[in-house]
Design goal:
The protein has 237 residues and is α+β, with helices and mostly antiparallel strands. Helix content is 19%, strand content 38%. It has one domain. Helix 1 crosses helix 3.
Length: 237
């Protein structure tokens, strides 16, 4: 496994906040299905409600019985293999005791395999039906983001509140669209560098990719570009 560069905890602010800004700006701006640009939610946002403990956070278990619980959000571009994402995690023993907590930061998109668009995926049976879901449902038109299934493989860094950080590979599988039989179970898998135990059992979780148009990311940067252009132009009388 290739090593990621050290990533200090303060860097979370530089990644998590832009991801959130892109997410908030994208919902009213996103257009028709695009197989390259995606927002994604991992056991967070409108996918969860106070009573969704069985699916939020998402859980991956090892053969030894310990587990990692994870949640987060971000954006990815399949063509350029770029990703901006962050979230939180908790490592629990087989008896449920907390062994470690911290944040995870995405460093690289290894691959993304789209299963195709699923425009009628919201609301899904058993999903929360509060105002946030109804708000997104109103966007399920040609001008709204389209729920999409797929498998994303990310290189991430686990940054605990105490102790050294570690590199890992996170698989996020959303079982929507034309799902391969071997990936019919929605969930996450985690492989940690230096840990002989793979957390390969999807023990619950809810996640979704939302296809967007390329301009979504550009929209967040537009004000800065405009300011630069205005600064270079001579003042008009």
């Amino acid at each position: 496994m290739s090593r990621l560069k050290p990533f200090p905890v303060p860097a979370i602010v530089g990644i998590a906040l832009p991801c959130l800004a892109i997410l908030l700006c994208a919902l009213p701006l996103a257009a028709q299905y695009n197989d390259n640009h995606f927002l994604f939610l991992l056991a967070s946002g409108f996918l969860c409600d106070p009573g969704a403990a069985s699916v939020c956070p998402a859980t991956a278990k090892s053969n030894q019985g310990d587990s990692y619980e994870m949640s987060g959000a971000g954006t990815l571009e399949a063509q350029s293999n770029s990703v901006r994402a962050a979230g939180t995690y908790t490592h629990r023993s087989p008896s449920g005791n907390v062994l470690e907590t911290g944040v995870w930061l995405a460093g690289e998109l290894v691959s993304f395999n789209s299963y195709g668009a699923a425009p009628n995926a919201l609301p899904r049976q058993g999903w929360p039906s509060g105002p946030a879901v109804f708000a997104l449902k109103r966007l399920q038109m040609p001008s709204g983001p389209v729920p999409t299934g797929g498998l994303a493989v990310l290189r991430i860094r686990l940054v605990p509140l105490q102790g050294p950080s570690r590199n890992a590979v996170l698989q996020v599988n959303c079982a929507l669209g034309d799902v391969p039989r071997e990936r019919s179970v929605e969930g996450i898998r985690l492989s940690i560098e230096g840990n002989a135990n793979d957390f390969s059992e999807e023990a619950g979780g809810r996640m979704m990719f939302l296809s967007t148009r390329p301009e979504v990311s550009a929209a967040v940067k537009a004000p800065r570009q405009e300011t630069t252009q205005n600064a270079d132009q001579p003042a008009k009388n």
